[in-house]
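Q: Got a minute? One more chain.
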Amino acid sequence: MNTSYLTHWIKKHNIIKLVFDESSHTEMIKRSDKMLQFLATNDSLDEEDLELVWKCQEGKHEEAVRIVYEAITAVAGYLTVDQIQYLFSKIKQIPSKDYSELTINFIKDFTESAFRASNSMKFNTDDDLLMEDKKPAVNTDFLENIKETVEADSYEFEESAAFGLPMLWKLMQKNGPLAKIAFESIKEIFKYPHSEDFKSHYIILCLRNIYRDEACPQSIDLLNNILEETFIPQRNDTGAAMSEVVYSLQEKLDLIGNTINGIGNYLSFVKEELVQQAMRDEVNEDNSTHVF
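A: Always. Here it is, folded:
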């Protein structure tokens, strides 16, 4: 049985529709990843198929949604750029009010798979990960005009190529438990070799937040994490040392001064919030003991 015959047989008998029908059993979907990867690898997975896969999870309970998300993530690394963008357009339509830990983890996992697919095309390789010596180095040219970039009214880059990173970045800057999960997801993505193209952009975004005293604690933490993941302790033939980058940022932006100022303002904010909360608690306690 050759590849052409098998792909034709799967398509002829509507196997994808059977597996991803609204009434399909989750155990069938769990076992579908190899079939989807096989079809994608042999250019036999089309937009209609992806639509069936996506619709299968709509309105389902969390476990069923998780299983479909895992199937999508498993095949994403084998898709074309257009197919990845098609699926990502579906992800972007999920209302933010419906976000959960499951949603955020899916955005993270999908982004990692999309990066892998994009870089496999770029480097013409099917390796799951690029070898360390093939990993694209982070260009430090962004440091040359970093002061002007940070002080500018706005900063833009090609967000569509970053997939879920911009979504996670926006969520990270809010309050609440999901913000923490988004923050950890971004850190995980930046451990992935294929994220190198976007590190300089998020260094700039962190610096802009610190400079403007916006979402300062998480921006400081993320900046430190990216720098540690990106730059080596000492300069060699592969790139600049972290100390050189930090020195340049300090010289051009007074990084230490802005960081201390941001932390100080944040602590003052937290202190004021605690005082206000204590006052509210005291009022509530007085009301609860008042006898009419």
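A: The CA atoms of residues 59 and 135 lie 41 Å apart.
Q: Perfect, thanks.
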